[in-house]
Amino acid sequence: MKPFWMVCVTHMFVEVYFLTQVALIPVFIREFNLSLIESSLVATVPSLVQLSANLPSGFMTERFNTRQLLSISMVTEGLSALLVSQTQSFWMLVLGVSVMRLCSPIYHISGLSRISQLVDRERMSRSMGFHNALGSFGSAIGLVVLSFFLLTIGWRWIYVFWAFPILIWGLIVSRSSQLGTKVSEDRETAKGKMLDTLSSVLSTSFLILLAAIGLRGIGYSGSTTFMTTYLVEIRDFSESMASLIFGLGTFMGIAGSLNGGYLGEKIGAKKALSLAILGSVISLSVLGFVAQVYLLMAVYLIYVFFSSSVWSPINAIVAHITPGTRRGLSFSVYFLTEGLVVSITPTLAAAVIGSLEIWYIFPFSIVFLTIGLMVLQLLHYSG
């Protein structure tokens, strides 16, 4: 199997649990007798752990090869999934999910950095589109399988079900000679003091992109975290049905990822990213007011389509505007920004909707998406 596709398949396994914890929030509230604020800790605490691992993972890409880092991420995810499946305590659940989230920065920073070296600039956006589509597919099948277990033998089995294939894939990756190259080819250039290294990455263009991504991320994370809660508590869907709708949305995310890669190649990554955020704003504005069930599902799928179209152009822009010898660190700073947003937003959003009602997650998200779109226009980038 070619290195590019090995990285993409690893991405699929990394994402199978990505939305599981969010989809299970209504279940956790009932089973562990939690308040809305307490339940948000399932998203917040693991995100903080992931946040703390972003910069170290960036420096690890300059010291270890892709094969080693991808294998470590798979083993971490598989073993922590087995831990979560056995927990009887809410805090042990949070601990297990937190350990599981460590695999994300280890994988993403090394994997994306490797892809940025494997493909030409002209094919970068399209390649990132295929990569993100495999991730969306992983999230989708994870939620569909979760719906099956919720209807049959319980939510814990979702963690057992995927743990063993993930561990086996980690073993396969560890034996691949094609992924043995270090991400940073220039070893001497890659060395240096941390502040000097960071200053070489944080250009004006990159800082503007990070600000736009951060604002957009607040809007996205706020709506995504409590979408199943909204469907269960406001729209009276069952927990399994809400999870299934959530899962169908991730299948639409596959099309969105491919769309983002295609548009980025045809009209440029910045324009593609702007259109994706604008589409998210419009569809989310409609979603908060539709009454019919089927219309709600249709608008939600459109929203997921646009939301998933952002990843390919974002990754392509990061690869284009940052130094090639600092690619691992550049992606780690990007994921650090995104991780910070994902860490604080669920609790912030829970405080807002807790004092009002869950419906207000829509205007909350729309405001931040719109501001992020405006900031993005300040980025001078023609690719």
Verbal overview:
The protein has 383 residues and is mostly helical. The protein has a single domain (3-376), classed as MFS general substrate transporter like domains (Growth Hormone, Chain: A), CATH 1.20.1250.20. The chain contains 19 helices and no strands. The chain has helices spanning 3-15, 20-23, 25-31, 36-60, 66-86, 90-101, 103-118, 124-151, 157-174, 187-190, 194-201, 204-225, 227-233, 239-267, 269-287, 293-308, 311-321, 327-355, 361-376. Helix 5 (66-86) packs antiparallel against helix 9 (157-174) and helix 12 (204-225) packs antiparallel against helix 19. It is globular and about 50 Å long. Mean pLDDT is 79; it is low at 184-196.
Estimate the strand proportion. Answer: under 5%
Gap between N and C termini: 31 Å
Gyration radius (Cα, Å) is: 20 Å
CATH architecture type: Up-down Bundle
Overall number of strands: 0
CATH class: Mainly Alpha
If helices are DSSP runs of H or I spanning 4 or more residues, what is the number of helices? 19
How much helical structure, as a percent, in the residues?
over 70%
Which regions are unreliable across 5 or more consecutive residues at pLDDT < 50? Answer: 184-196
At the fourth level of CATH, the homologous superfamily is MFS general substrate transporter like domains
CATH topology name: Growth Hormone, Chain: A
Please identify the oligomeric state: single chain
User: Would you list the SSEs in sequence order as H and E?
Assistant: HHHHHHHHHHHHHHHHHHH
Would you tell me the structural class of the helices and strands? mainly alpha
Mean pLDDT: 79
Domain count: the total is 1
**Global morphology:** globular
Biggest β-sheet description: none
